[in-house]
Automatic annotation (TrEMBL):
Identification of the protein by name: Aminotransferase class-V
One Pfam family matching this protein: Aminotran_5
Domain of life where this protein originates: Bacteria
Organism: Micromonospora coriariae
Transferase in keyword set: yes
Amino acid sequence: MLDANRGRLWGRPDGRGLFAYPAQSNFSGVQHPLSWVELAHRHGYDVLLDAAAYAPTNRLDLRVVQPEFVCLSWYKLFGYPTGVGALLARRDALARLRRPWFAGRTIRAVSVQGDWHRSMDDESAFEDGTLNFLSIPDVEFGLRWLDAIDVDLVHTRVGLLTGWLLDRLTTLRHRTGRPLVQVYGPATGADRGGTVTFNLRHPDGSLVDERLVAREAAAAGFSLRTGCFCNPGAGEGAFGISPDSLRRRLLARIDTIDEYLGALRLPTGGAVRVSFGLASNATDAERFLAFVEATYLNRGATADSPLPPRLRC
Ligand SMILES: Cc1ncc(COP(=O)(O)O)c(C=O)c1O
């Protein structure tokens, strides 16, 4: 575990472990220092750097930052909703990994009766099944395209759009004087990427349900991600859920996310996320701000039509 304030790592005192962290949070957009890689190395850890959210709008120079493993989703670099990703690994780190099982295409030889197998010597020992070879060539075209645009330019533009939206959102006030928007994560453009996560509040301070925002935004032509973004840990931090509030006996009786939120008396378990990328422009940001102002500023809590249950986190 890393204590960023004291710059210390705790963990297995004896041997090596793996320190995994995201260069940029998919929840709050905060960027964690890349210097943690070197810090973890000094304490004997291998490092897995999750660059999935970071790489689309930031240059990552692996001559300077040298984690053992880097994972990233190529399709996110090109603005696609899904596609192939990669786990980059240093050869020496890969050679230290032992796989306790195997799957098709990862072995050189096998005997079922003899309960024996020999793994491939290279990365293919970890590549189960048939690779998505129809999509992999797209990565080369995508990288060439991104190189021609220049990722540093994308970074600058996304930084400007993010800073602008944060400035505007955080200054919106209802007539009651209460803020309309509560941002999770850095409220300025510093040390962050183009992910802006927030909840909206009514003039009395109560939360606007994120499912309602999703519905109304979709009707206005905005595609927003809402919920906890597959990052329950960051969500629990943002909503102030402490280990004390999570009694195991209580959790044992709960089956759905809505029951869980009810048991913790949380008004919402999720938030709204706006992400800027290489395709975003100033009109997108201005239109979204205008939608938020027109729809939610000074709008009191109403008995809205029933919202769908939350089916997954
Ligand atoms: C930091 C981070 N890690 C991992 C992922 C998961 O990526 P994928 O769905 O391509 O596996 C995401 C996706 O948003 C992410 O932002």
